[in-house]
Structures are given as C-alpha cells and as structure tokens.
Amino acid sequence: MRRFPLAAAAAAFLLVLLPLATAATTSGGKSPPTSTTAAKAKAPAPAPAPPNVTALMSKGGCKAFASLVTKSPDALSSFQSAVGGGVTAFCPTDDAVRAFMPSYKNLSDDGKASLLLFHAVPVYYTLRGLKSSNGPMNTLATDGSSRNYNFTVQNVGDQVSIRTEASDAVAKVRSTVYDKDPVAIYAVDTVLEPVELFEPVEAPAPAPAPVADAPKASKRGARHRPKHVADAPGPAVDDDAADGDQRKNAKKNKAPGGGQSTRWLAAITAAVAVAAAVLV
Ligand SMILES: *[C@@H]1O[C@H](CO)[C@@H](O)[C@H](O)[C@H]1NC(C)=O
Ligand SMILES: *[C@@H]1O[C@H](CO)[C@@H](O)[C@H](O)[C@H]1NC(C)=O
Ligand SMILES: *[C@@H]1O[C@H](CO)[C@@H](O)[C@H](O)[C@H]1NC(C)=O
C-alpha cells in the first residue's frame, strides 16, 4: 500500500510535464501561447509589398532586360521569389541587350531562363559590400553542383567588374539602379555569358570545334530541367562574404524548437522510467 502514493506522485508529475511538453512542441520553442489575443495584438503589420524588380530595372535603364525577364515565366517567378530573401541583380543596359539579342534568340527556353537568372545572386550586396567581395559567386541559375552557373567578381580600384570563363570582356558595373535592403540592382555594360551556355574562351577555337560543340551545350542545358531554385549562397560566397554588411540578411538561423522538443521527450522518458522503477 505504500507504493500507491509514489505512483500517484509519478502520475501527477507526468500530468504536469505532458502539457508543458506539448506546448513546447507546438509552439516550436517560441514563447508559450499564454494569450492569443495578446499575440495577435503584437503581430507586426503585414509586410509592405516586395519591390517590383522588373519595374525598377525598366526605370533604371534596363528596359530591354526587364522585358526579357517578364517574357520568361521561369525567370520571372524565380526573381520574384528571391526578392524576399535578399537579392542583388546585375542588369545589362539596353545597348548591351540589343547587341546580344542574336545569341539570346538562339537559346532554348531553359537556356534563356538560366541566362537571365545568371544576372542575379541570392544575397543582398551594397556597392561597398561588392567592392570587398572578390571571387566566385553562385547565381540564381545555380542549382546544386551540376549547374554551377557561377561568375567571378573582381574589383580593380573603384571599379566593380564581373568576369565569366566564356568571355574575354568583363562586365563593368556602371550605376546603381536601386539599393534598399534586401534588394540591390546595378546596371552592367555587357550581358554575362555563363560558360554552361557559351564556349569558354580558353578553348582553342578552330572553325569546326565551336560548331560541333555549340548544339551540345544547349542540349545539355535542356536535358537537366532547371528548377531555378535560388540556392543559399554556396561555399564560394561564404568564403568571400564573411565580413561586412553583405551577410546581414542571412536570416537563416531560425532554429526551430526541435532541440527543445527532444529535450522534453528525454525528460518524459526519464520520468516514465522513474515511475516504472518505483512501481515495480
Ligand atoms: C511589375 O511591373 C510591371 C511593369 O513594369 C508590371 O507589368 C507587373 O505587373 C508588375 N508586377 C507586379 C507583381 O506587380
Ligand atoms: C545560332 O545558331 C546557329 C545554328 O546552331 C548558328 O549557325 C549561329 O551562328 C548561331 N548564331 C548566334 C548569334 O549564336
Ligand atoms: C564555377 O563553375 C565552373 C564551371 O561550371 C566550375 O568548374 C567551378 O568549379 C565553379 N567554381 C566554384 C567556386 O563553384
């Protein structure tokens, strides 16, 4: 008969623990839902509409590029969904796009989308941040390791330039079209050519070689159906962007209450073990 109070105590202990554990699990480790009305009152006002990237580009001297983005559903949706997490776009000027149109028209729809998404990185960079970010960067066209679609930022003096392996010419940042955290748009004077779509300049280019290789390159792009999921900045970006303000919108450290739930489960298990030991 002496066991009964102990068992009752263990049961009471569990009864107290369980609701707490449930609360911790459902609230994901955030503050417990003491009062829903108070929580509602404190909820922030709905976020302002995200900036319209294509409209901003059009206004800033990149009307032709914005128009190409608008006509590519894959590119447009990827640009739009990237805006919230931070994005820096490099839009070629209208002259640059005009000169590039014959090559652009040769690309498949996937190739077009990839080329357009190649002109933005999924990180917000101020001009100052760019100037301290020499090195390779992943773009919105990057998708895992099979679709590198990276370019190289190189700074000479005060001039920010972008280089790819597919072109001798560097694209120079000419002006700031828009800069308001988390979105920056800079105008560049040349269309960026990803080496995934255009022959690298290093390759010796006797007449037959490019003709034989060019269709292969676009077929390769078409076979891998691009998802155009904006990757988090890859290791390349991490290495170079560790300092400065460019990392400030990497709000990726929202650790959900997983750890806490696990701890609660461990506590319950321990309590049950104690109760069992007492009852036996
Ligand atoms: C963005 O602006 C363009 C005009 O430049 C307009 O056609 C488009 O509907 C706008 N998109 C959104 C999502 O408001
Ligand atoms: C477009 O593709 C055709 C056939 O592959 C090729 O002959 C032509 O040179 C290409 N034009 C441009 C501008 O790349
Ligand atoms: C960039 O892309 C090229 C070509 O796909 C690849 O060879 C290279 O490893 C990539 N560099 C980085 C730093 O990801």
UniProtKB/TrEMBL annotation:
The keyword Glycoprotein applies. It comes from the Eukaryota. This is FAS1 domain-containing protein. InterPro entries: FAS1_dom_sf, FAS1_domain, FLA_A. Residues 49-192 form the FAS1 domain. Residues 24-50, 205-260 are annotated as: Disordered. SUPFAM superfamilies: FAS1 domain (SSF82153). Residues 217-227 have a biased composition (Basic residues). Gene3D superfamilies: FAS1 domain (2.30.180.10). The keyword Lipoprotein applies. May be a cell surface adhesion protein. Keywords: Cell membrane, Glycoprotein, GPI-anchor, Lipoprotein, Membrane, Signal. It is found in: Cell membrane. GO terms for biological process: plant-type secondary cell wall biogenesis. One of its GO terms (cellular component) is plasma membrane. PROSITE patterns: FAS1. Residues 1-23 form the signal peptide. It comes from Digitaria exilis. It is a lipid-anchor; GPI-anchor. Residues 24-44 have a biased composition (Low complexity). Belongs to the fasciclin-like AGP family. Transmembrane segments: none annotated.
